[in-house]
Amino acid sequence: MISQAARLLKGHLSGKINYAIFFVTARCNAKCKTCFYWQNADNAGKNELTADEYLRISQKWKNLFHISLTGGEPLLRDDLPEIISHFYRNSGARSFGITTNGLLPDKAEAVVAKALAENPGITLKFSVSIDAIGEKHDEIRGVKGNYAKLTETITKLKTLAEKNKNLDLRINTTCCSYNKNDITKIIDHIDSAFGLPVGIGIVRGDARSADSKEITPEEYKKTTDYLKNKYKKRSGALAYFRMLDNVLFGVYDITHRIMKENAQIINCAAGRKMIVISEKGAVLPCEMLENVFPKKKFIFPDLRKNDYDIEKALKSPEFKEMLKLIKDSRCFCTFECATMNSLAYNPGTLIKLMLNFR
């Protein structure tokens, strides 16, 4: 815990990017109505970065604090543990996150077990997506039997978590028009059925089904307020987690204000403290940039064309132009990871949130 905080502080003082989101694949075995990456998934090619290319990237990228492996469905890759090991050994990363739709229980168990065994001291934040209960979840996710499979995935991973304190198992729920009236029941069900913490996201970007985004700021706030009140009851030995909850609650509050005010609420750290790498090696400051500026044609630096050197890509005129656009336009979106990073590297706001226990 202390070492993680020290690494976060070091990252803040270094002025370097130390939080990376890797879209390791665009391939997916679901058809989620809320997915903003669906066009990439439906047209997924074979030009993904290879494990050897991730090795080359890791050798030139130092002092990484956290890496999120996403997609698509990241477990469709057979080399996730290898990719994790590359960044563990070469980049100093000790915190990793994987989000899955839960359709591959055996694969999830094998990947997690291998990653933990081969990389001592890592924290693996493994999130399973649950957007409803039973058949309603399957309908949102576009796969019959998805809920049964994710239940099997959670059961297997909970067994692993009982043996390994470095596995941080949790649930992600995307708030959308299809579940907004039932989401408090969903949260309670997750608590009683699985006993795992829940994080709330909001459908965003160019969703596969446009009507999934029909949710008001008030409806979103009702959901997050319910979660806040539920988690604020933690006490005693769980006080540390209450501090982390308060940071997450800050993200919820900022997201609500963005939805309500249609304005940037906090200076965005995208491209300065957080970076996104596509499955083909494109370097983006934020995964929402093209959605925020749909009429603008961006040229994203390509790691393959920059000798797999992130610093070269960040120094390119194209990337600097995107950073200037973000700063000058004060653009805004509801991408929670960007908001979390913006809070994490705003010391005054972060400390205030962590100490606010009431």
List keywords for this structure.
single chain; 358 residues; alpha/beta; TIM Barrel; 8-stranded mixed sheet; 12% strand
How would you characterize the overall build of this protein?
The chain is of the alpha/beta class. The protein has a single domain (2-355), classed as Aldolase class I (TIM Barrel). 47% of the residues lie in helices and 12% in strands. The protein has helices at residues 2-14, 38-42, 51-60, 80-90, 105-118, 135-141, 146-163, 183-194, 217-231, 239-261, 289-292, 310-314, 317-329, 336-344, 347-355, and strands at residues 19-23, 66-70, 95-100, 123-129, 167-175, 198-202, 274-277, 283-284. Strands 6-5-4-3-2-1-7-8 form an 8-stranded mixed β-sheet, with helices on both faces. Helix 3 (51-60) packs parallel to helix 4, helix 10 packs across helix 14 and helix 10 (239-261) packs across helix 15. The longest helix has 23 residues, at 239-261. The protein is globular. It starts with a helix and ends with a helix.
- Low-pLDDT regions: 235-240
Order of helices and strands: HEHHEHEHEHHEHEHHEEHHHHH
Task: Let me know the average pLDDT.
Answer: 90
Helical fraction equals: 40-55%
CATH class: Alpha Beta
Number of strands: 8
Q: What is the 3D shape? A: globular
Tell me about the largest β-sheet: 8 strands, mixed
Strand order of the largest sheet: 6-5-4-3-2-1-7-8
How much β-strand is present in the residues?
A: 5-15%
Count of DSSP H/I helices: 15
Tally of discrete structural domains: 1
In CATH terms, what is the fold-level topology?
A: TIM Barrel
User: What is the straight-line distance between the termini?
Assistant: 23 Å
Instruction: Determine the CATH superfamily.
Output: Aldolase class I
Q: Find the structural class using helix and strand composition.
A: alpha/beta
